[in-house]
Amino acid sequence: MKITRLLSALGILTGCVTTCVSLASCWTSPASDSAALIHAARAQVPTWSDDDLQFFLHGSMSTEVVPEAVLHAFQHTYPDLFPTRDFSYLGAIPDPAFGWPVGFSRANPAHLGGLPGVGINCAACHVGEVESASGHGRVRVLGMTSLFDSEGFFGAIVISGFRTADPANMKKFLAAYLDESDPSAHATTRAQRQQALARAWDVQAAAISTALNADPAGAAGAGPGGLQTLSAADLQLSAQSLAANQDLAHLSVSMLKLFHNIRTALHVPDQPPTKLPPPSGPGRNDAFGALSASLFASPQPAAPVKYGLIWNVQHRSFVHWDGNTRSPLARNLLAAVGLGAPLIGHHAELNFALVQRQTAISERIAPPAYPFTIDRTAAGRGAVLYQTQCASCHTGPETDARLYAPAVVGTDSVRASLFTPPQAEQFNRFLAQLETAGYAPPAVPGIRSTQKYWSPNLAGVWARSPYLHNGSVRTMADLLTPPANRPATFHRGSHFFDETALGYTDQGTYLMDTRTPANSNTGHNYGTTLTPDEKRDLIEYLKSL
C-alpha cells in the first residue's frame, strides 16, 4: 500500500530527528524578572522603540509554516518528537506572554488555508540567554548565536506530517486538533465532542482509509509552485461541523494537502530521504548547503557553521563567516525563502517590507557589554598582550584585508572550500531572477566566493562561545590552548557560562565531536604559547571589549 511504503521510508528521518530531540538541551529558562532581562538587552539597541524590540523578537518575515492548532495537535499526538510545548528542549527561549518562544512569529498565510500560523524569524537564531555558572545572574543578549536547534524544529514538523498519513495516526491527530481548533474549558463538553468525533470516524473509517491511501503525500492536483489551494473551511473541525455530518475523508485529505504545502514551502520532497547528514546540533546549521540542495538540486557535503553574529553589521561590507554576502537584505531574503516563504517559480510569496524592516533594525544592534565582574588590574596587563597577540588580525576597518585562507590560520577548511565561484553564481542568478512586490534585484551581484574566513572585530567576544566558525572550541581558554591539546569532544546545549574560561560549560546532551568531517578544532594557534597567568590576563581584557 502507498501509506505503508511512505511510512517505511520514514525510519532514517525519524531517527535523525529523535536524535536531535534526545540530544537537545534540556535546560529550561528559569523563572526570573523578564523585565530586567529586556532592560539589559535594550542597552544594545538604544535607538529602538518598544515596537522595534517586539518586532525583532516576534515580527513576521512571511515564514509562517504551520497552523498553530496543527502544531499544538502534533505536540499532543507525537510526544516523542515534541517533549515540551515551549521548545526549550531545542534551546528555544520561552516567552509565555507571546505564547511561543523568542523568534517565533504569527501570520495567516494563504497556503495554510488562511489559518493563524507560526514560523521563525531572525531572533530564533540570534538571541541568547547566558546564565553565570557561579550564580552571578542571567542576561539576554541580542544578536548573539542562539542555541536553537532549527533542524530539530523543522524536522519534527515534517515527520509529523508524514506520520499522520496513516489512518490510525490521523484519528489521534484529529482528536487533538478538535480540542485545539474548537477549545472548551469544560471537560464534559470536550468529552462529548470527542465521542462525536469517534462515532463519525467509525462510520466513515473505510472511506477515510481509501482516501488517505490514494494520495498519502497530498500532492495530487497541486497548482503553481506545487502548492495546494486550501481554505479555512477545508480545515475546519468543530462541534458544529461534526453535528452537520462532516465529511472526515475530505478533512483528512485536506490535512494531507496542508502537510504537502508545509513541505513544499520548506523545499522538502514528498518522499522521505534515504540518507541525511548528521545533526548539526544547537546553534548551528548548513544554510547555504541546504539551499544549494533544495533550490539548485546541487547537494554537497555537510559543513555546518554557527549562526552568525549580527551586531555592528553596519560597519561591514560583507557578512557571514567567509564574507560571502554583500547585503544583509539578500541574506534575509534567502533566509525567508529557506524558512517557509513559498516560492512559485521565481516569485516569492512574502512581504518584502517586513524583511526590509527586520534587516534595518538588526543592523542597529550594538555588541553586548560583559555582564559579570572583570578583574580590571589583570585586564590592564591583558591589553598589552592583546596588541601583540590579537590586534593585527582583529582591529581596524573590516575590509577584505581581514579575510584569511584556511591554510594560513589552520582552521577547518570544508566550509570555505565548498562555497565555490559556481555556487556563488547560482545564488546571484537566483536573486537576480527573484520576484516579489517591492524588491529590485541588486545592480551588482551580492554573493561571492572567497574560500577564506573573516577575522572580525572582537567586541562582545565573550558572547561568541563556542569559538571558530564551526563552533568547535568550547571556551576562550581552550582557544588559547595548542590545538593538539584542545578537547576533542565536548557537550553543547548549556546556557551556563564559565566566567573564568570564558564560554559555555561542558553540559548538554549533544556531543560535539571535532574529529568528524567539517568539525575540526585545529588552527588559530595565536596566544597558545602564553603562560597561564598571561592567558588569564588576556581573557580578562577580552571581557572588556
Q: Which residue ranges are poorly predicted, with pLDDT under 50 across at least 5 consecutive positions?
A: 22-32
- The fraction of residues in strands falls at 5-15%
Shape: globular
Number of strands: 15
Bin the helical content.
Answer: 40-55%
Largest sheet: 4 strands, mixed
Radius of gyration: 24 Å
> How many helices?
21
Strand order of the largest sheet: 5-4-13-14
Mean pLDDT: 91
Distance between the termini: 62 Å
The class by helix and strand makeup works out as alpha+beta
List keywords for this structure.
alpha+beta; 3-stranded antiparallel beta sheet; 15 strands
Question: Overview of this structure, please?
Answer:
The protein has 545 residues and is an alpha+beta fold. Helices cover 41% and strands 8% of the residues. It has helices spanning 2-8, 11-23, 34-42, 50-58, 68-77, 122-126, 150-163, 167-181, 187-214, 239-243, 248-265, 287-296, 328-339, 352-362, 376-389, 391-394, 406-409, 414-418, 421-433, 476-479, 532-543; strands at 66-67, 104-107, 117-120, 127-132, 138-142, 284-285, 305-306, 343-344, 347-348, 403-404, 453-454, 489-492, 496-498, 503-504, 510-513. A hairpin with a 5-residue loop joins strand 4 and strand 5.
